């Protein structure tokens, strides 16, 4: 089988875009002005997700934990009176952060 001659196309290297390279300098998420979760807040949310599985075994604990893990992965913080923050306080038994 003969190899067909193809023209060589010079491609320039891809330039990183703002979306491809996350920056820690952009601190406010584009979610109605809600601040980003700090690393220690993310740890707190994940701790509450693990606690949800302990307190509510079965499907209910899985749903609660899944919602909290999704909240932590989004990277932005809901208001203190929001459902996620109230659930975290309920599960961890602590006051507002």
Properties at a glance:
97 residues; 3 helices; 0% strand; elongated
Could you provide a short overview of the structure?
This protein has 97 residues and is mainly alpha-helical.
Radius of gyration: 22 Å
Protein structure class: mainly alpha
β-strand percent reads: under 5%
Give the distance, in angstroms, between the N- and C-terminal Cα atoms: 69 Å
| Biggest sheet overview | none
- Identify low-pLDDT runs: 20-29
Number of alpha- plus pi-helical segments: 3
The dominant shape is: elongated
Overall average pLDDT: 77
What is the tally of beta strands?
Answer: 0
The share of residues in helices is: 40-55%
Task: Please provide the ordered H/E string of secondary-structure elements.
Answer: HHH
Describe the overall structure:
The protein has 97 residues and is an all-alpha fold. The model is unreliable at 20-29 (pLDDT under 50). It contains three helices and no strands. It has helices at 39-55, 59-74, 83-92. It has a domain at 39-92.
């Amino acid at each position: 089988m003969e190899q067909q001659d193809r023209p060589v196309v010079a491609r320039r290297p891809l330039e990183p875009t703002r979306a491809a390279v996350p920056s820690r300098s952009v601190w406010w998420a584009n979610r109605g002005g809600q601040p980003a979760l700090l690393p220690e807040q993310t740890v707190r949310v994940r701790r509450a997700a693990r606690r949800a599985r302990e307190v509510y075994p079965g499907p209910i604990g899985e749903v609660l934990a899944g919602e909290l893990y999704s909240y932590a992965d989004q990277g932005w913080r809901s208001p203190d009176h929001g459902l996620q923050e109230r659930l975290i306080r309920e599960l961890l038994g602590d006051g507002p952060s």
